[in-house]
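Wed. Picked up where I left off yesterday with Multidrug efflux system protein MdtO. The coffee machine is broken again, so keeping this brief.
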Amino acid sequence: MIAFVMTLLSDIPLGEVATRALLYAWLMAVAPMMLIVGFNLFLGRTPQRVLRVSLSERLLAAGDMLQRPDSANRARIHSLLKEGQTEHQQRALFVRIFHLRPAAEAAELDNAVINSYRLLLAVSALPTSIENNDENNNENNNENNDENNNIVEAERLAFSAYCAATAQAIAAGNPIPAAEFSQEESTGSDMREIRDCLIALTHPVNMKDPTAPKATFFAADAVTNPVHQRFALKTTIAAFICYLTYTALDWQDIHTAMITCYVAALGTTGETIHKLILRIIGCLIGAAMGVLAIIFIIPHLNDVGELMALVFAGILLAAWVSSGNERIAYAGVQIGLAFLLTVLQGFGPSIDMGVALDRVLGILLGNLVVYVTFTLLWPVAIVDSVRQRISRALVGLTNLAALPPDARASALREATEVEAELASAQEELVLIPFEPAQLRPAHEERARLKAILTEMSVLCPVLFLPTEKKHGDVRRLRHLSVDSDAVSPSPEAKQPDGESARSHLSTIELTIQRHINRLEKLLRTG
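Structure written out below (tokens, as returned):
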């Protein structure tokens, strides 16, 4: 918007006109913001209500996983883990700083955000029933196994019942019920961690990590990484081409082309093309709605109320699409924008379709210029971004494995960051079909990267458990994380020596080694 305003300065005859225009521009920007604030203040969903619903969903999912640790419930847990903590922590922050609820309740919600995510990680590490049976068959004392299984089953049912009761209390806005669990040692570190998480819901523990790096406004490699400079240069070139085009043609009504360059540009080529497609589809749908309204509806309008009803109907459809899945949400924004640009051309309804079509053509021109620029100048493949995220996730897994069992705050931070990297990488893989053919990886490579992400997503919760990890496992993870290319072939790692070595390992240690072995194999096959 700043760049577009700068292009208008040469057309302003007097400085006073520019000053007045700037003041009206501020009014134009602030007025709808204040309208949205007022609307949400009286009719919107409050942050604490949205937060309570999401916390209740977490606890219900954890309770179902404890009761039935099957693949369906595990997939539900992984889906909630992929959501991360950012939005939940922001809502808890809003509740606290705006004093939307009493201080004690705000602190309770903040604590529930931390420990509910911690609980999801812990229950995600639970083995499935099949894994339990396989591991129990390898043990020597079947009588002890049956006794341990009965104890674990009783603990799971008790924890599941408490999760259901707590979810109901949180959803209803009631205080969280106190956890009445035995402080005796549980049968495994996974069950101990689950018990500690549930107890911490009403008896908070300090989960502030003193070693956490401070958040910065810019990316850590904003100055050193040439990708950022190239991205800025590509976006500027695209905007400059659009500006020269509509200025040379003296066709100011297609100025939306330059705005499109800044709106649609994203980090990778696949992401940019995906957004361009959504922008084109939304633009065409919104413009079609607007043209149909101009032809069949606007000539019959008599007052401003009828015009408001027309705008409401069009924006309702756009808002419905915009509130959907993130992969299509931007199309809803574009539907609404194109519809408004077509229908509202001045201070009243108009049946002139010339300006409306020009604005739509400007959007399409901007899409074309961005596509050509981002596919020809330093194209960034999604697979490169995925590999970088895998590399960062491997570093996080190594740090997680090296932490002592009592460093729960640091472990939660590392696990949260790893889950965020894995979720972003998985979302990026979905966009590979939108890339040009020369940037797409082979189908086998895509399947291998997906398998690597799957193994890491299973390994992360297991490493999060408060157990002392084997030094050999930490070394193997560190070897993978320090490799210059996270998905390049790595040398053969030393494996545990036969059944004699495996017989002295716990279930968690066996699980860790199994997934590290798979990771090493997948990384070597690149």
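Quick read: Residues 130-141, 486-493 have pLDDT under 50 and may be disordered.
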